[in-house]
Here is the input.
Amino acid sequence: MAIRSNYGVWLPQGQRVRYNRWRGFERIFSNGKEENRYIREIIFGKRRAIQYWQITTDPFTLPENSTWYVMTKIAGLKYKQVGNYYGLRNWVEYGLKQSKNELGWADFRITDYSQIEKWWEIVMSAYLMVSLHSDVLNSNDPSDKDIETDNIRSTFSKHTWWDSGKGWKNILNNLRLVIQPFIFFNLIKPWLKVFLIPQLSLGFSTLITIMNLFKGAIPRSAPKEWFQFFSA
Here is the structure.
C-alpha cells in the first residue's frame, strides 16, 4: 500500500533509519509497455516482516509526481517485483469501484457498525450471486441435468433487453431480468387477494419456476458447507 513521505515508525533507542542503494528495474504496464524505474528499500532499525520502499523515475531529482513510498508485507518479495505488484493496485481498485457502484455500495453511508456489517453482507451476497454466473466458474463439463435444461435456459437470451456480453456488468444486467418475475409478482400479489385471477397467479408461478432453472455454478472444489448453504 502507498504511504506518505513523512510516514514515521517508532524505533528503540540506538536504532536508525537506513536507505539502501538505488536499483533499477523494468516497470511493465498492462499494455506490455516497459519503462525504467528505480527502487530502494528503507529500513527502520532492523528489517521486519513489513518492508518500506521508495520508487521513482529519477533517483537524483526525485520528482514529486513520479516518486512513491510503498509499504509491503509479502514474504520473500524481491525489489524488482514491488513496483509491478503495486501497479496492479489501480486495476484492483478500479474493478472494486465499478462493482461497488453497480451494487449501490457507494450510495449509502452507515455509521453504526452492526448496520455496516448487514450492508456488507447484502452487497457481498449480491456480488457472489453475480460471480457464480461467470464463465470462469461455469467452465466445468455440464452434467446430465444441465444438458436436460439447456434448451430452456437458452431461451432466456431471446429477451429484448438480454445482454450477450461476458463482463460482470453484462451478467448483472441479465440476472436483474431473471429475477423480475419474482419481484413483479410480489408487487401485484396484494391486488390478487382483492381481485381473484387464478390464471394470472398460475402464469407467474410457471414463469418463476422456469426462471429458477437459471442457476449459477458451484465449483467442484467447493467445500460441503457451500452445498448446504445453497440448498437451504
